[in-house]
Amino acid sequence: MSKIAMPEMRRHGYSEELAAGSIGVGATLDILIPPSIAMVIYGIATQTSIGKLLVAGVVPGVIVGVLLAAMIYGWVWL
Known about the structure:
Blueprint: H1 2-11, H2 16-32, H3 37-46, H4 50-77
Helix pairs in contact: 1-2, 2-4
């Protein structure tokens, strides 16, 4: 993803810090938002319901995603 997103953000005039930070923090959402490979592996290793883990990741993932988008928008706007 970063090989595609970074050049595009540079082309549109975003700073290096904002582009790299956005890609890095966005990659961490991969763990929360289903279908998450990390949650499936955790569920198998701990004998926990994978369905419940995936459902439990939706709300935090959406909240973090919305806050991330708001922070990036605020930074770009300023």
